[in-house]
Amino acid sequence: MSYQDTFPAQSPRPVPSTSIIDLSYKEADSLVTDPTASSKTLASLAHHPNLNIRIAVAKHIHTSIQTLVGLADNHYWPIRYEIVSRTRPSRRLLVKLAYDLHRYVRAVVARHPNTPLHILRELVMDRDQNVLDALMENPRLPTVALTKLAYRILPEHMPILIAKHPNTSQKILSSLAPFH
């Protein structure tokens, strides 16, 4: 018995003949929530006028990298947030969205375990507290970045977060001693 005999492939639901952009919310939602939706269908739905449909496209497991890159330019931050919140966003998307105007998008990039180290080092200079707090949750944050953080003027809870980080060196800990 072959794998295909055991788990027969489900064929994707056919796409209606009308333009996907002209579909009602209900019709578009039924397509985007279909686990067998094709990447071509999702690419078309990425242009749907409804924000919730575009967010669902960003979340869908079959959405192609090309479609996600296009959605990363969307002016609605929740779409960009969902792209970065995916389990495995591409390195290209993480780098691109690290410089996003919206703090919540940058915070998700800072927290993401696959964010490149050079981006984590740059995000240490971010002015937003949400981004800095998210950095402290990233176990890959390099010691160099922690050192930069330790010497910045920070809110009172940050030295505690720095001290608790697994990559904090003894030298950084001793510089934080006056804050305790």
- List how many beta strands DSSP finds: 0
| Overall helicity | 40-55%
The profile of the biggest β sheet is: none
Give the termini separation: 66 Å
The average pLDDT value, as a whole number, equals: 86
Order of helices and strands: HHHHHHHHHHHHH
Provide the fold topology.
Elements: H1 3-6, H2 25-32, H3 39-45, H4 51-59, H5 65-71, H6 77-85, H7 91-97, H8 103-111, H9 117-123, H10 129-136, H11 143-150, H12 158-164, H13 170-176
Helix pairs in contact: 4-6, 6-8, 8-10
Overall description:
This protein is mostly helical and 180 residues long. Helix content is 54%, strand content 0%. The protein starts with a helix and ends with a helix.
Search tags:
disordered N terminus, 13 helices, elongated, 180 residues, mainly alpha
Give a brief description:
This protein is mainly alpha-helical and 180 residues long. It contains 13 helices and no strands.
